[in-house]
Amino acid sequence: MRIRVTAEFPRPGRAFRPCESGRPNRFSLFGLLMDTQIAHRHSLRILCADDNIELVELLSDMLRFYGYRVKCAYDGTRALRTISAAPDKYDLLITDMQMPGLSGHDLVVQARETGFHGKVIVFAGALSLEERQRFGELAVEAIVDKPADHRQLISVVARLQTELWEHASATAA
Question: Given this model, what pLDDT does residue 1 score?
Answer without folding.
Answer: 42
